[in-house]
Amino acid sequence: MRAVVMHAPGDVRVDTLDKPTIVEPTDAIIRVTAACICGSDLWPFRGIEEVNQPTPMGHEYIGVVDEVGDEVGDIEVGDFVVGSFVASDNTCEICQAGFQSRCIHQVMMGSIGTQADYARIPLADGTLVKVFGEPTPEQTRSLLAASDVLGTGWFAAVAAEAGPGKSVAVVGDGAVGLLAILAAKQLGADRIIAMSRHADRQALAKKFGATDIVEERGKVGVAKIKELTGGYGAHSTVEAVGTQESMLQAIGATRPGGHVGYVGVSHGVELDGLDLFFATVSLLGGPAPVRRFLPELVDLIMTDQIDPGIVFDLEVPIEDAAEGYKAMDERRATKVLLTL
Ligand SMILES: [Zn+2]
């Protein structure tokens, strides 16, 4: 089968690998019908994360179940399914509390790779969510977004306690930040301030529900958020980048008593204890428990209440995956869909 493999930073190829087989009786094999390239795939592509050996890529996926292990009960061959970037049993105490991304039996899908014709999905009953009905091409795109970027943006907005009567600031205008805006709007936030300096992304932010745009960054950006919120700062702030600057911007933009939902994968972030002490904000973040939200998100998508799939602005066949990585790296594309 075809699979996207990273051989070294900047060196992405489509190799021929063996089709995966059932390893554990709780596994399923799916035929991937669409996959995509994640912002986090750019960390190794840029050499910020090491690539020690040829590594199969990808952790976002939708597809059709091709084979199931003996202990899989709820998922059947032929089901059209969507899953998240962490396989989880959905039964342990952590999962039951809604934090499936840290399931005690978690398997990171990135360690398996889903930018391929087929993928092995561990803990299939807990991980996969069935989609009923025949999705349109638009709905298919949106279901793929639900697999990671929408689910992650949604978690960030929930963790930041976005809701009616709240002002929400969003740091980061990648796919996750943009979809956190969509989530904040769905959750009923009054005011949504997008921090972005790219015209095309500002336009998409407004389409998803942003009421204000702040182009400034750092201390000036924080001052601008305060100015827009009566001098207080936002009630809720989403951090969707993962750098020192973005994290400090998020905490600084939040009023005392407010909440920060941080979902940008942290790279070199160090927080000063005393500054954090006096910030007086709640911090909740980490790998998003997308599985918690998937049934609701699938329903919103299949009833056309949300259209997160418009975040994909480049579609390439899997053979051209290298071009897709390059386009995202050079910021020519926000989010790339790989067709199979
Ligand atoms: Zn669990």
TrEMBL record:
Pfam families: ADH_N (PF08240), ADH_zinc_N (PF00107). GO terms for molecular function: mycothiol-dependent formaldehyde dehydrogenase activity; zinc ion binding. Keywords: Metal-binding, Oxidoreductase, Zinc. Signal peptide: none annotated. Its cofactor is Zn(2+). The keyword Zinc applies. This is S-(Hydroxymethyl)mycothiol dehydrogenase. It comes from Occultella aeris.
